[in-house]
What does this fold into?
Amino acid sequence: MKLHIKMMLALILLLLSCRERVSQLDIMSDDFVSPPPTDAEVTGLYYQAGNLVGIQFTMLFAEASQGNVDVTNVFFQDISERLRTVTTIHTGDQHYVIEIFGPYELGDYSLRLFFGEIAIGARIFSIVQEKGQMVIHSVPEVRRVLDKAQEWRVVISP
It folds into this structure.
């Protein structure tokens, strides 16, 4: 009886140790790919009746992605998290676009990019009042007109 239990435990341990690695964060996997170095730049601002309602970011990679990788985009207003979404970067991609719409207010904001728990990029900016209009501090302006947003939402495109 004891031999039978020992054999079953040994078989279970053998099966668990020989499992196929499936996590994209498993660096021991033959399929492991890290994301390329990333920079986020503001490429568009959306206004409705003079109010800032959306910001378009383009995530630029220093090189084409070597494989499919999931990146988490986290958007903060001051220290409060407003949005969290996961984007898949496909093999060969050199950029992707994310548009974030919401009820923007004056203050500090950041868009942070994560690979698992590792930060791989960020764009930090402030929204200030200039000449009676909300603008992003120190960012070139590309304007579009939309309806005023009532809640936070995100649009991602390749």
About this structure: The helical segments are 2-17. The chain has one helix and ten strands. The beta strands are 38-48, 51-61, 69-77, 80-89, 95-101, 107-115, 118-130, 133-136, 143-145, 153-157. The chain has one domain: 38-157.
